[in-house]
Specification:
The complex is a heterodimer of chains A (144) and B (165). By secondary structure, chain A is mostly helical. Chain A has 7 helices and no strands. Chain B has 165 residues and is mostly helical. Chain B has a domain at 3-63. Helix content of chain B is 82%, strand content 0%. In chain B, α1 runs parallel beside α3 and α3 (28-38) crosses α4. Classes of the chains: A mainly alpha (144), B mainly alpha (165). The A-B interface holds A 4, 7, 54, 57-58, 61, 65, 67, 72-73, 75-76, 78-80, 82-83, 94-95, 97-101, 119, 122-123, 126-127, 129-131, 133-134, 137-138 and B 15, 18-20, 22-24, 46-47, 49-64, 76, 79-80, 83.
């Protein structure tokens, strides 16, 4: 709707799709920025399903993981919890690159950031996610 | 030697590679190098496991992402057309209003002019007709005693008295 109401400001210099994507991205980023960042997820915050998912997938990392709809929902919920610990910009970078398979160049075009900024954000996001996951796995293994 | 192998030699561990490289862009050769390293390095094995699980949940999150409904585009375009139509109607309404005001003012002016054309000649006629009457009344009045003022009457009496002497 923001794009729709601001349609008059579209100067036609770039593609309409790109212009709308930029508006959507910035609007979503502002919304996420407005919400408070959650503290780091700890093992005690995990639900029984999430702990089970971690155990199953850790055991099956080398092999084919059984992915039922329920498992996907548990994983998506766990991802939300972990991603909430990141800044909105880092979250966007890692979701687009690692989740959607977008290139650094595409993310730079979508967000208006420089390519090096995209790389730095993705790097920071991966590092934080990995470290948070390492902590969860450590607790999980201890509990098991 | 691949980039992954170079980095392992440089940093001694694989965490830099894991954090710097999107997992999907790691070649099979890179993965082999990483697997060979993590079989001997416990901290790197834990980091690799965590990185793999992180990648998995981010992908699952993206797969679960909610997309627009199939009729989203139709609805947006319809809403856009409605707004354009409303804008056109508004423009027409504004034009109609201003034209209406112009027509109304013209009608008022015409009515005023018509009223003037009926009333003004009569007034001219009346004035031209009444003026001689007024003049004659004044003249007549000057001659009759009834129309004389007290002062005129007194001066007339004195004149009469002097005449009789």
């Amino acid at each position: 709707m923001k794009a729709f109401t601001q349609l008059k400001s579209y100067e036609g210099r770039g593609s309409l799709e790109g212009w709308m994507t930029r508006i959507a991205t910035n609007t979503c980023l502002n919304m996420v920025r407005a919400s408070k960042r959650r503290p780091e997820l700890t093992a005690s915050d995990l639900s029984a399903e999430q702990s089970e998912w971690l155990g199953q997938n850790l055991a099956n990392l080398a092999g084919e993981t059984h992915r039922s709809t329920e498992n996907k929902l548990v994983a998506a919920d766990l991802a939300d919890r972990l991603l909430e610990g990141l800044s909105p910009e880092d979250r966007l970078a890692v979701t687009l690159i690692d989740g959607e398979g977008a290139s650094v160049k595409e993310v730079a075009h979508t967000t208006g950031w420089s390519e090096s900024k995209v790389k730095v954000r993705a790097f920071r996001a991966r590092k934080r996610l990995r470290e948070a996951m390492e902590k969860l796995l450590k607790y999980h293994k201890t509990a098991a | 030697m691949t980039e992954a192998q170079t980095k392992i030699m440089e940093y001694q561990h694989i965490t830099e590679i894991l954090d710097n490289t999107p997992p999907a862009s790691l070649s099979e050769q890179d993965r082999e190098t990483i697997r060979a390293h993590v079989s001997e390095c416990t901290p790197c094995r834990q980091a690799y496991e965590a990185a793999q699980l992180s990648e998995l949940i981010v992908k699952e999150r993206s797969a679960e992402a909610i997309g627009p409904s199939p009729f989203f585009q139709t609805r947006v375009l319809a809403a856009w057309r409605e707004q354009q139509e409303a804008g056109r109607m508004n423009a027409f309404g504004r034009l109609w209003k201003s034209a209406g005001a112009l027509v109304a003012s013209l009608a008022l002016t015409t009515a005023a002019l018509a009223a003037l054309s009926f009333t003004v000649p009569q007034a001219t006629q009346i004035s031209s007709e009444t003026n001689p009457a007024v003049e004659s009344m004044v003249l007549d009045g000057a001659e009759s005693d009834e129309q004389l003022t007290e002062e005129q009457m007194l001066s007339a009496m004195y004149v009469d008295d002097e005449g009789s002497r």
